[in-house]
Design brief:
This protein is an alpha/beta fold and about 130 residues long. The chain has a single domain, classed as 3-Layer(aba) Sandwich (Rossmann fold), CATH 3.40.50. Helices cover about 25% and strands about 15% of the residues. A 5-stranded mixed beta sheet has the order 2-1-3-5-4. Strand 4 and strand 5 form a beta hairpin. The longest helix is centred in the N-terminal third of the chain and has 10 residues. It is globular and about 35 Å long.
């Protein structure tokens, strides 16, 4: 098991990530809101109690996730909305806001890297066409 980067004196897995948890997370098959919050905080994320607004992100200081791969679509994404609903993962048009499922958080922890979100490729192609 990884120790979140502390043994190598690197930032936590979610360092540079601002996270808002959207929904109730009350399904019996889903990780609870409290558990997700604890995992994200232990990984260095900043937890927000209000959903970030796209129009306000431009005026906020841009943090970048330390553990996003170079050249990744998540490389410049600073804000994440973890949704309890079964919606597709997507990256907002400005590239700083990403909507993900709780499974993305858990899978990223298991792999100790911010995983690419599979549907980001198709979402960005749709945005480019519009």
């Amino acid at each position: 098991m990884h120790s979140w980067g502390f043994d190598l004196q690197r930032p936590g897995l979610f360092a540079g990530c601002h996270v808002y948890l959207s929904g109730k997370f009350d399904s019996p098959t889903m990780t609870s809101r409290d558990d997700l919050t604890r995992l994200l905080q232990q990984g260095g994320a900043t937890i927000h109690t209000r959903e970030p607004r796209t129009e306000h992100l431009a005026s906020e200081p841009c943090t970048v996730p330390y553990h996003a791969s170079t050249g990744s679509k998540l490389e410049m994404c600073s804000h994440y909305i973890v949704q309890d609903r079964d919606m597709s993962d997507r990256l907002d048009a400005n590239g700083r806001l990403c909507y993900v499922k709780p499974s993305w958080v858990l899978d990223s922890i298991a792999n100790f890297k911010l995983l690419e979100v599979s549907s980001l490729d198709s979402a960005s192609k749709v945005s480019a066409k519009n």
